[in-house]
Amino acid sequence: MEIIYGSELSQKIKGELKQEIEKLQKDGRRLPVLSVILVGDNPASQSYVKSKANACTSIGMENRTIRMPHSTTQQELLNEVQRLNEDPQVDGILVQLPLPSHLDEVSVVDAISPDKDVDGLHPVNAGKLLTGRDGFVPCTPLGVMEMLASVGYTDLSGLNAVVIGRSNLVGKPLSLLLQKQNATVTMAHSRTADLKALCQQADILIAAIGKPKKITADYIKEGAVVIDVGINRMEDDKLCGDVDFEAIKEKAKAITPVPKGVGPMTVCMLLKNTLKAYKEHEKIYG
Ligand SMILES: Nc1nc(=O)c2c([nH]1)NC[C@@H]1CN(c3ccc(C(=O)N[C@@H](CCC(=O)O)C(=O)O)cc3)C=[N+]21
């Protein structure tokens, strides 16, 4: 059984991104810029935003984190997004979610220019993915596909993939990406009848449920590849996935841990998307 460490795979990919940015620097070019907007003082959000900033710095990409107070109004936030849309120095815009409850996330995401939407959440990018056009794909699904590729799972012809979770951020886009690689995909969710029996058919099982250790060994087909997207903060402050890792690890062909699994890949794919945005902007502005 193989453990797929996102922490290691992301280092390798970041090394490649870093080399590309060093080349830009050598050629005297403008460097890519990621701008992150953080509203309020949610501690988890603060720590995620910090790790995104550190990841940028580690590859020589510029990070501009904009901190706005909890009391920020919808209009003030929209104005800030608009300012970044119009700033030719800014390649990627990420509005850290969740927003405080008085703000409307959907209209904020809709205000981000699709060519700077490195989170892949704008409906234009969602529509591009759905219809097979080139656009920005959400970072967590991209990271999952990289993890599968790292164990040789690129052409998924003849394989059953079960995705548990149907969010716009993970389940829906990931199902499309798996299907594009020829997997036969089933999207399961909280209302699925007999989830266990369905999971037992899965050659690739993706858990994005949000319930700690929900997926136990009896859900797993022998030799399956299991990707755990769950990040559950336990009472002792430790992180725990949706998968009961210890119970499953001997049954699976490959499995991702939590932490050090999908999380670090998400951040890494954000950098990759920002470099992609930069390249497209340079074609336009440069
Ligand atoms: N607009 C937006 N885009 C996002 O991509 C986004 C967001 N909002 N809001 C919150 C979620 C969550 N998220 C994570 C990123 C990295 C780790 C990560 O690196 N986790 C480490 C551990 C971190 C720790 O110990 O706290 C790991 O799993 O090993 C986790 C979670 C991105 N998100």
TrEMBL record:
Swiss-Prot/TrEMBL keywords: Amino-acid biosynthesis, Histidine biosynthesis, Hydrolase, Methionine biosynthesis, Multifunctional enzyme, NADP, One-carbon metabolism, Oxidoreductase, Purine biosynthesis
Gene3D superfamilies found in the cross-reference section: Leucine Dehydrogenase, chain A, domain 1 (3.40.50.10860), NAD(P)-binding Rossmann-like Domain (3.40.50.720)
SUPFAM superfamilies linked: Aminoacid dehydrogenase-like, N-terminal domain, NAD(P)-binding Rossmann-fold domains
One GO term of the biological process aspect: methionine biosynthetic process
Record carries keyword NADP: yes
Pathway of action: One-carbon metabolism; tetrahydrofolate interconversion
InterPro entries: Aminoacid_DH-like_N_sf, NAD(P)-bd_dom_sf, THF_DH/CycHdrlase, THF_DH/CycHdrlase_cat_dom, THF_DH/CycHdrlase_CS, THF_DH/CycHdrlase_NAD-bd_dom
GO cellular component: cytosol
Example of a GO MF term: methenyltetrahydrofolate cyclohydrolase activity
Domain Tetrahydrofolate dehydrogenase/cyclohydrolase catalytic: 4-119
EC number: 1.5.1.5, 3.5.4.9
Reactions listed under catalytic activity: (6R)-5,10-methylene-5,6,7,8-tetrahydrofolate + NADP(+) = (6R)-5,10-methenyltetrahydrofolate + NADPH; (6R)-5,10-methenyltetrahydrofolate + H2O = (6R)-10-formyltetrahydrofolate + H(+)
Domain Tetrahydrofolate dehydrogenase/cyclohydrolase NAD(P)-binding: 138-281
Binding positions for NADP(+) per the UniProt entry: G165, R166, S167, I231
Keyword RNA-binding listed: no
Entries under HAMAP family matching the protein: THF_DHG_CYH
Subunit structure: Homodimer.
Function: Catalyzes the oxidation of 5,10-methylenetetrahydrofolate to 5,10-methenyltetrahydrofolate and then the hydrolysis of 5,10-methenyltetrahydrofolate to 10-formyltetrahydrofolate.
UniProt similarity note: Belongs to the tetrahydrofolate dehydrogenase/cyclohydrolase family.
Name of this chain's protein: Bifunctional protein FolD
Organism of origin: Faecalicoccus pleomorphus
